[in-house]
Amino acid sequence: MQSSLSDTIWLSEKRKRLLLLLMEGPRNIDQIKTSLNVTSKAMMPQIKILKEQNLIIEEDRVYQLSDIGEIIVKNMVPLLKTLGVIEENNDYWATRDLSSIPEELDSRLGDIGECMVIEPDMNHLFDLPEEFSKNLIKSQKVMTIMAYFHPLYPDLYYELANDGVQIDLILTEPIYKRMKEEYTDKFRHIVEREHTNLYICNEVNLTSVVTDRFIYLCLFNKNDMYDHKKIMSFDASALQWGTELYEHFRQKSTLIEWD
């Protein structure tokens, strides 16, 4: 009895790795052995199974994905990437409120790639992480979604504005009012700079900073509380994911001019 397609793919690490390899292009057996660090004896039975399931085809001793094999593997990749991201920091993701991430992006959570969870100790709860501050001042473009106020942000963005950095800010109305009332001069300086765009959006329930260098994402926990845990990634796919997240909320925002 022939196995199901799902069993064929998921119940063998060798078969799964071969399918992913062939997604990059056709390979002969020697190239497969080198890339996957396997022997012919170990791999040939797996190739036979994949051929029987019409997932790969062979021509002149070169193997490649069939049409249905290519469709299946294209759909495998996002799932495997998402599993990788979640497995790496399972406790973090399991406790986050993910409802504020739009559907088209939560299905691509794997694009965040390799990331670090930043959790300060009790003596540094209100410090900005060194990795964040160090890379922020080296950035040329900064897109920020701000769902909570941090007392160090006014000074930090004031410095960025002085350095001519492109700043795009999405604030909730309460944060906007607090910045305007309590940090009037600095906030005016930030907002009136040629390279600053300011928006208000009250549908925001996360904080995100995306630059040309990294993404910094702060999600509330399932109790709708900020518990000082954040993630940071430098992967190119993560920057694209973060840019799309920013754009999603920008389209729901109102552009603000200083008055």
Automatic annotation (TrEMBL):
InterPro entries (UniProt xref): FilR1_middle_dom, Tscrpt_reg_HTH_AF0396-typ3, WH-like_DNA-bd_sf, WH_DNA-bd_sf
Organism: Methanohalophilus mahii (strain ATCC 35705 / DSM 5219 / SLP)
Domain of life: Archaea
Protein name from the UniProt record: Methanogenesis regulatory protein FilR1 middle domain-containing protein
Pfam families: FilR1_middle
Gene3D superfamilies: Winged helix-like DNA-binding domain superfamily/Winged helix DNA-binding domain
Methanogenesis regulatory protein FilR1 middle domain boundaries: 126-251
